[in-house]
Every structure is written in C-alpha cells, then in structure tokens.
Write a structure and sequence with these properties.
The protein is of the alpha/beta class and 778 residues long. It contains 29 helices and 29 strands. The radius of gyration is 30 Å and the shape is globular.
Length: 778
C-alpha cells in the first residue's frame, strides 16, 4: 500500500512507522513543511497510561521516549502567597523537538521516506498524494487539507476566550506548576513543567480583555515577554523567559486556542486512472481532526492514539481491498471521534475554568486549588484520595474546621457530611431530597403515602427532605393529585408529617411552593405527562396567552394586575401555613415553565406592559411574590428560589442572564438559588450528562455571590463530595436515586467506606453487615 502523510508531527510520524512495522512492503512517505530535525514548541506532557499504549505499539521507540522523559507526581498550585501541593498524578514530560527527533530517526530506521521543507500544496506533495492509496492529513491545527475538503469534514472551530503564549525557561520546576498572578488589569496564570535536564515549559495565559487592557497587544515580542517575566518573577528565581518563535513579531505570539471538532474524518477523492476512476481516501489525524486544550495535556496523546488505532485497523488490508479499507476507515472515524469527544468534554470544562479564574479567586487557597484539580470532572474526590490520601484528608479537615462549621463537627468528614447553616437553620449534611412529583394527594391533602415517603427519606440520612411542588391555590395545581397549602386543613395534615420527621431523624423538612400556571390542569405523570385532563379542566394563567406546548396544552389567559395581586396573597398565605405546619425550609418554584417562570423567560413573556420586555420588567412580578413570601415567613428561616438557569433555546434565558437574575433575587431576600434548567419551551435542546446542571450552580455561587443548590444527574456520593469541596455548590440535590433507595445517603456513605455515621436505632443492625458486604466486594 502506498501511504502519504502530509505533516510530520507526532501523528504522521507515528502512523508511518507503525505501518512499516506491520508490513515492510508498505511504501510510506511523510511530507513535512519544516527543515530536517527542526520544529517549534517546548515540552509536551503524557500520562503514565499513554506510555503503556506506546510500549505495546512499538517497544523500541517507547523505550527511547521513556528514557528522555522527565517524571513527576506532584501538582503545585501557587495562589495568594500560598502553595498547595497534591501528589500521585503520574505525569511525564518530554521536549517536543526531542520527541519528533526520536520518531524521525525511528521512521528512517524502518525505511519510511521523509520529505522535508515541502508544503502540502507544492508540486511534489501533490504528485505523491495523487499516486497514493491513502493520504493522511496530519498537517496540524491549521490544516490546509481540512480546509480544502471542508464540505466533507465540516470543521467546527471555536476560538477560546484566553490569549496564551508558549515560552520556555531554564528554571527547573520539581512539580507540574500552576502559578496565578494578579495586577491592576486582572489575572494571569502560568502552566509550567520541566521536560528535560535544562528546560521547563512556561505557558502564560490570560483572558482576552485582560490581555488588551495590559497593553501587550501593542508591545513587541520582547516587551511582552519582559512584562510577564515581571509578573511571574517570584516563581522564576531570576531566570528569563525564552521564546523559540522568533519568526513571529510583536503580539502575534499570543494566540487564542482554537478548539477543533470535525463531523467526519474521512474524505474520498475520485481520481482518474487507467480503466476508470479510483477512490483515494484522505484521512484526518491529530490536530487536523481535533484539539484539546493544553491545560489537560492531551493533544499529543490523542494524536498518537489516532495513529495506533488506524494502524491496527488497517492491519492486513491491502490496496486492492476497497471494501476492507472502507470498513477500517469507517470504524476509525466512529470510534476515535467518540473517544476524542470524551476528552474534549473534559478539556472544555478545564478551558472554561482557566478562562474564569476571577470567578474562583475569592475562594480560600485550599478550595481554589481543589477546584483547579477537579475542574475537568475527570478527577473525582475519591480518585484524588487514591492519588494522595494525605492531601484529601487535610482538605477534609480544613472544610470541617471552617469558621461557618458548628463547634461539634468532627475534625475530618467527607464534604457531603459537613453541616450547613443558612440563617438559623442548620442542616446535618449537604444532601437534599429534592421536590419530586408523586401525584398522591386528594384535594391537595397529603396522607399516609407522604408520611411513609418523606419519613423514610428523612430516616435514610439526607440532611434536607423537600415536599414536592405544593400549590398555593386549587387552580395552581399541575394535576388534581398534587399537594396544596391553600387551606388550614392541608397545613394540619403536613404538621403531622413534620412532627414525625423531627421526632425520628436529624433531617430538616422543606416545602416547595408554586403555581403551575400554563402547565396546570394536566394528568398525572404516568397517565400522560403534560397532557390536559380528559375532563374537568380549569382555567389557566400565564404571563402571556401562550400555550405551554403548542397544539397540546390548554390556552392560558394573560394575567391582569388584579390576578397578580391575588396570586401574591396566595403565596403569602401558603408561606404562613408552611410555618404553621413547622416546615424548616421554603423553596419557591420560579423555573420549569410554571407561572413565575413564564414571566422570567422572554420566550414565554410577550407582554408590552411594565411586566414584560427588559429583565427588570420580567422580574417585577416574581420579585413581588418573593417579597410577599419573605414578609410572611419567619426571618430566621431560609427561602430558596429554583430557577431555570438556561432555557436551552436561542432567545431564551442564558447562563449569563441567570447570574444577574440570581443577584436580583438575592437582593430581594432569597437565601439560596436552586440551579435547574430547561422545561420552559418544547423547542429546547438540552445537553445532558453527569452533573450537567452543576456548572450553573458554580457560576451563580461564585459570580453572583449567593449560596446554591446543585441539581441534575448527581448520582454518587463521590460527585457530591467533589461539588461541595470545590465550592461549586453548597448543597446537592439527589432525586431519582432517592426514589430507588430511601436510605441512599446511608448506603452511599457505607459504599465510600465512611463508618463514623449514625443510623436510626431500628435499622442499626444492618449497618455492619452492609459495610462488611461492601468491603468484600471492593
């Protein structure tokens, strides 16, 4: 098979040598634009796991690469005059030039032809590609081949928000180092690591607006380097920063990272040939196909793994086997694109963290460093414990001993078990059973089911147990089977449950008050979710006369100011009854397309009066309801507000706007924001995944400065520990897992090996057996 690789970076070189290893009869040519043994860049980073893949693929080059690596386990985070160290990370770094030189020499040893100083559009390169059986486009992040066949590859290139410059220094770092420096313009961060006996990589990054404000845009290259040298002098020990991109002028060396994703990785060319046209595949590999931000150090790893995968799939496929070639390339495209997507999701999380350092700068150094270490969501709390138990134990002691923790808290606790105080209410831990619709009431009255349902979950170890959305009026119910607090008899029934919870567990009990608005008068979930009642429907209200689901839902009436005044009184009266029923915690439903949500979202609020248009106007009625509730709810008890932090629809509420909404709710008396998303429009395009709504809680907590509750696909105690420890949210709502297991909290703590937790006396005999069973299974 004749193989031509356009681009002599790690992907092209490694693929070429692997194909020669598999079959010396392959004719492999690599076309590289640079001169022999010349390259730009400093060090690259691998993990220990990547090296295992290289050893299996080609032991000879792997041994040489490994011998040239610098190894380290620690990560040092320097922030506000402190250094926080975490170990056990298993990194290895090598100079990019050294890596390429090793691969070039190995290619020459195996008989791969290397053609240097030749551009992809040069006559020689075009002739080689025309004669090939397969062309590998490994021509890097600015791939000309990808651009040439963009209609097939459909690249999506996202220029990220920070500027960065890739430098080197003779200062040798003993750990992978993150250093953060602030001046009058904002935050700069350095990513630094040693890659050989003499040199370290030193990448400096800062948001675009900080870069411009600092004047680097107008500086020469030398002036820009001198500027960051002064900033990072405390970590350079007098060593200068060095550029090896002298071909670039001025600020051109400061670039924005382009995140590259391609819909397809294979293009088929129809080329003339004797006896008819022949089809020649052009295959993307490495940075030409994808990029992952340097903060997770996976670019070279992905390139080499692309090469390994494709070489393996082409094993035994000859040039005349068109069907086999097509099948191999189709599998390569499918499998590698999925693997890369996983890395890119982690890289996106990491990228966004570094783009928003200012968001986290108010955290204490201990929490700031932990947030950095867990930013990509690839490293969890328990994974960190496996890497460095001493570090995690110290962090847990610090969390438990913070000034806002009660005096009787043990010296070390899993973060999810630390108590949480809001106003005068202290939750025994950070786990919340959120409001979940159970459709089990008659005329708004709770009964034996709710006694069992809420009581079991309170005894199951959760710190706060919430009653499902409870209507403030009969017409505010989502279904006829929903609970209510529009009369005193309903409050009496709830008081009995509250008394049981208080008597039987340390858990606190809360209620979510709401009005279904345009989503009212529907069937129970299992009878037809969001479907109107077959008969007996009642009139609906909303911000605007617009059905929740066009062609399905009933048409609501646009609220008048008289309607608003009446509903505000209904909320106030329901809050008073919630206090009479001895609830500890109040949550208001301002999300998910219900009545108050219909005012907040521009998708559902089409009003032309003082309650529509600007955010100030759209919040006018919801803030009036909050004020009415706060006035009728005790001052020593908290009020939380649930919002949809994004509508998942263009033109709707965005996460940016959600931060401002949270600020205004906080100023009006809200103590916590419950950060949910969506269910506002049938046209939504949500992005699901584990902990998929936690980033909203993170932004609102750390930008708006208001406590938050994270909700949505949090299914493990390990996840909850990470969310709390990193400061992404103050509380974690665990919904569906608690439906499956009322004692989820106790069972999860046992699974994590936490023994120092008390069980209800009636169930205590089960505790040692469960712990022993889990210990045997570990």
């Amino acid at each position: 098979m004749k193989i031509v690789c356009i681009g002599g970076g790690p992907a092209g070189l490694y693929f070429g040598l692997l194909m020669k290893l598999r079959d010396p009869a392959h004719v492999v040519t690599i076309v590289e634009r640079n001169r022999p043994y010349d390259t730009f860049g400093w060090g690259v980073v691998f993990s220990d796991a990547t090296m295992d893949n290289l050893r299996e693929a080609d032991p000879a080059s792997a041994a040489e690469i490994y011998a040239a690596f610098n190894h380290w386990d620690d990560i040092d985070v320097h922030i506000k005059g402190r250094t926080i160290t975490s170990g056990g990370h298993g990194f290895i770094g090598i100079g990019r030039k050294k890596l390429l030189n090793i691969l070039q020499a190995r290619c020459e040893q195996l008989g791969v032809r290397l053609v240097f100083d030749t551009e992809s559009q040069d006559d020689q390169a075009l002739a080689l590609a025309h004669d090939a059986d397969i062309v590998i486009a490994s021509d890097g992040i600015n791939s000309r081949i990808r651009t040439r066949y963009a209609d097939t590859f459909k690249p999506d290139i996202d220029q990220r928000k920070c500027r960065f410059v890739w430098l080197g220094t003779r200062k040798l770092f003993d750990a992978f180092t993150f250093a953060f420096a602030q001046n009058e313009h904002g935050w700069f961060q350095a990513h630094a690591y040693r890659f050989d006996a003499e040199t370290s990589t030193f990448i400096v990054e800062t948001p675009e607006e900080v870069w411009r404000a600092s004047g680097i845009e107008d500086m020469s290259q030398e002036e820009g380097i001198a500027y960051v040298e002064r900033l990072f002098a405390p970590w350079l020990d007098g060593q200068p920063l060095i550029s090896n991109a002298t071909h670039q002028r001025g600020s051109a060396s400061w670039i924005r990272f382009p995140r590259v994703i391609c819909d397809s990785w294979v293009h088929w060319n129809e080329l003339p040939a004797a006896g008819g046209a022949r089809r020649v595949p052009v295959v993307l590999m490495g940075d030409a196909a994808h990029t992952a931000h340097f903060s997770i150090g996976s670019g070279t790893k992905l390139a080499l793994e692309d090469a390994i995968d494709l070489a393996r799939r082409l094993d035994g496929v000859d040039a005349g086997d068109r069907q086999g070639l097509e099948a191999a390339l189709q599998a390569y495209d499918k499998v590698r694109s999925l693997e890369v997507l996983k890395i890119q999701n982690a890289a996106r999380n990491s990228t966004e963290w570094f783009e928003n350092v200012e968001r986290y700068a108010a955290l204490e150094p201990e929490q700031f460093a932990y947030s950095l270490l867990t930013r990509s969501q690839r490293i969890s709390h328990e994974n960190l414990r496996l890497r460095d138990k001493g570090y995690v134990d110290g962090l847990e002691r610090w969390l438990a001993g913070r000034a806002d923790a009660p005096a009787d808290v043990p010296s070390s606790l899993p973060p999810m078990l630390t108590p949480y105080r809001l106003r005068d209410i202290t939750l025994p831990n950070r786990i919340v059973v959120p409001p979940m619709l159970t459709y089990s009431c008659v005329d708004g009255m709770v009964g034996d089911f709710h006694m069992m349902h809420l009581g079991a979950r309170a005894m199951g170890g959760a710190g706060l147990v919430m009653l499902e959305m409870t209507a403030v009026s009969p017409e505010g119910r989502a279904t006829p089977a929903c609970p209510g607090l529009w009369n005193d008899a309903q409050a009496d029934a709830l008081r009995r449950i509250a008394a049981f919870v208080r008597r039987s567990s340390p858990a606190r009990l809360g209620v979510q008050l709401g009005h279904a608005g345009p989503r009212a008068s529907t069937r129970r979930g299992w009878e037809g979710f969001n479907q109107p009642l077959a008969s007996g429907n009642w009139p609906l209200l909303a911000a605007s006369s617009q059905p929740y689901i066009e062609g399905v839902s009933l048409l609501p009436a646009a609220m008048t100011e008289l309607d608003m005044a009446r509903v505000s009184v209904d909320f106030a009266n329901a809050a008073r009854r919630a206090e009479d029923a001895n609830f500890d915690w109040l949550e208001l439903q301002f999300g998910h397309g219900y009545l108050l949500s219909s005012f907040i979202s521009p998708l559902t609020n089409r009003r032309q009066d003082a309650y529509g248009g600007s955010l100030e106007n759209r919040l006018r009625f919801p803030l009036a309801v909050l004020a009415a509730v706060r006035a009728n709810w005790p001052g020593h008890k908290p009020v939380a507000v649930r919002i949809s932090a994004t509508d998942w629809v263009e033109g709707g509420v965005t996460p940016d706007e959600a931060v401002e909404i949270a600020r205004r709710l906080k100023a009006a008396g809200a103590d916590m924001i419950v950060c949910s998303a969506g269910e506002v429009s049938a046209h939504e395009k949500p992005v699901y995944g584990r902990m998929f709504q936690t980033p909203f809680a993170d932004r609102i907590r750390n930008e708006a400065g208001v406590p938050t509750m994270a909700v949505g696909a949090i299914t493990e105690g390990d996840q909850a520990n990470g969310i709390v420890a990193s400061g992404r949210a103050d509380l974690c709502a665990i919904g569906r897992p608690h439906l499956a297991n009322p004692a989820w909290t106790l069972a999860e703590l046992a699974r994590l090996g936490v023994r120092a937790v008390d069980w209800p006396a009636m169930y205590r005999p089960a505790k040692p057996q469960l712990e022993a069973t889990l210990a045997r299974a570990a």
